[in-house]
Design brief:
This protein is an alpha+beta fold. The chain contains eleven helices and 29 strands. A hairpin with a 4-residue loop joins β7 and β8.
Length: 518
């Protein structure tokens, strides 16, 4: 059978086209094998975005000034009952049952508990080797140089149990240091390294310019790792965590852990804005809440420690409490600023100068007093013997009293009050408007509370049977008629509350109670 020429030609073209298609498919499917050429690859993903500034330049400059602090002490072993075990080389192990596993457990863990100082310190306690009188490690923290001749700052709780101190430089070199002085009230300490040469050091910042939200960098020795850098922001200012009378912490969210104590927190200019001293942590590790001693506080304390090895603070000699809205109303104050004097200590500078219970201290040397904490900081900043003008609110007006400050005792003195006699059981009288039943005290000074209406404002404000009402609106009271008169005077003056001075367990406090208007 013959094929027409035109038909043959068309058939041949179809076959050639099919072969070409197969060749292309083979090239796609087998790549270089089929085609003999290199594969064509897509470019790796790359995003052209603005670069966020880092902390490397700051860290590079400040790191040589930051050190790890190792503390050693001689620790005498003690039995669980407090008795000495020096005659028992096994530390009481002979009293254990004959159980190898139990003995091994106590050998490993007795006396080696890892204790957390203030939240930032890394403390490990151990017994002394009885055949070696050398100090043993008890604590480890951080610190930083503040002068080129070897003065450095750390926390008091890092060094407080130490007898020998070693600082580990950023390059790993270890140097002996001596303790210059400590200040437990602010948890600060100063060490000194001698005879080594010049040191890289850092300076304190003006922390009044630190704002919530500013970037900060913490450098320290968490868990003994050394030279560790973390970053975060300032989370809050003026935190009071109940650590002492001078609480004014800077809160940061940079990761701070045990061993960071005493280490610096820097701003982006490489200046120290705060010193790590405590963390809030349910688990013992960082949860992003750390507290720094402000640079302004540290700078003054450190200068005093370098100069004399201790800090001498002014002392006013008064017990104080906050001014609540009710108290402000009862005294005719327009705000709750100030510190209410609950008592002036006998022999104290304040009482000698004429400050009395019921005064509200509003200014010191023209500086406003916002709270009791602020008053403590202001007075503590002055040297003993300094004469200061103290402005008090008394009898509805301001008065200025000149006080020659004393020296703050090593332990806070408590104001002493005349011991109150037991309440006389006879003839109780009711102060119905206040929800109180009272009777005269046996010594004739004040009224003893014998009963409190549980639904009254007095109960809500914590007044209890046995409390002694000694004054109302700064006027001594010895009978219910004195209280009634003070309440009537308050109403006439347009006040909504009266201020009662209450004595309980030899201490004083003030309570504001609302008065009913007839």
């Amino acid at each position: 059978m013959s094929i027409a020429p035109n038909s043959y030609s068309r058939t041949r073209k179809r076959l050639l086209a099919a072969a070409a298609s197969l060749a292309i498919a083979g090239a796609v499917g087998f790549g270089a094998v089929a085609t003999g050429t290199a594969p064509v690859l897509a470019d790796a993903v790359r995003v052209e975005a603005p670069q966020v500034p880092g902390f490397a330049d700051v860290v590079e400059r400040v790191s040589p000034a930051v050190v790890s602090v190792k503390v050693k002490a001689k620790i005498e072993p003690a039995a669980d009952d407090g008795s000495d075990q020096s005659d028992d080389p096994d530390g009481g192990m002979n009293n254990l049952p004959d159980n190898p596993q139990l003995r091994q457990f106590f050998k490993q863990f007795r006396g080696f508990g890892d204790q957390n100082g203030q939240g930032g310190g890394n403390r490990r306690f151990s017994h002394r080797d009885h055949n070696n009188d050398q100090p043993r490690p008890v604590a480890q923290g951080s610190g930083f140089f503040i002068s080129d001749d070897g003065y450095l700052v750390t926390n008091n709780h890092v060094v407080e149990e130490g007898s020998a101190f070693t600082v580990v430089m950023n390059d790993g070199k270890e140097l002996d240091a001596k303790l210059i002085g400590t200040d437990p009230r602010t948890d600060l300490a100063v060490l000194k390294v001698d005879g080594v040469g010049k040191f890289t050091y850092v300076d304190f910042a003006d922390d009044s310019k630190v704002r919530v939200g500013d970037w900060v960098v913490a450098v320290g020795n968490p868990f003994g790792l050394g030279g560790t850098v973390t970053a975060g922001i300032v989370s809050a200012r003026g935190r009071d965590i109940g650590a002492g009378p001078y609480d004014d912490f800077i809160q940061i969210d940079a990761s701070v852990n045990r061993g960071n104590s005493g280490g610096p927190t820097f701003n982006l200019n490489g200046q120290v804005v705060g010193i790590n001293t405590a963390i809030f942590s349910p688990s013992g590790g960082s949860v992003g809440i750390a507290f720094d001693i402000p640079a302004s506080t540290a700078k003054q304390v450190v200068q005093d420690l370098m100069k004399s090895g201790s800090v001498q603070r002014g002392w006013l000699g008064v017990e104080i409490q906050p001014v609540t809205s009710d108290i402000a109303e009862s005294l005719g104050l327009k705000s709750q600023n100030g510190a209410l004097v609950s008592s002036a200590q006998d022999g104290g500078p304040g009482k000698k100068a004429g400050i009395t219970a019921g005064d509200v201290i509003t200014q010191v040397e023209g500086k406003d007093v916002a709270s009791p904490k602020e008053l403590a900081r202001l007075i503590g900043a002055y040297s003993p013997g300094k004469s200061v003008d103290v402005t008090v609110w008394r009898d509805g007006k301001n008065q200025t009293i000149k006080v020659d400050l004393g020296t703050l005792p090593s332990t806070d003195k408590q104001a002493s009050a005349d011991p109150q006699q037991p309440a006389a059981p006879a003839k109780p009288a009711a102060l119905a408007d206040l929800g109180l039943t009272v009777t005269k005290s046996e010594n004739g000074k004040g009224l003893v509370v014998t009963d409190v209406d549980p639904d009254s404002d007095a109960a809500d404000r914590g007044i209890q049977p046995g409390d002694v009402i000694t004054s109302v609106n700064s006027t001594e009271v010895n009978g219910t008629e004195d209280v009634a008169k003070a309440m009537a005077d308050a109403v006439k003056s347009g006040r909504k509350a009266v201020l009662m001075q209450i004595t309980r367990d030899d201490s004083n406090r003030f309570v504001a109670l609302p008065v009913a208007k007839g």
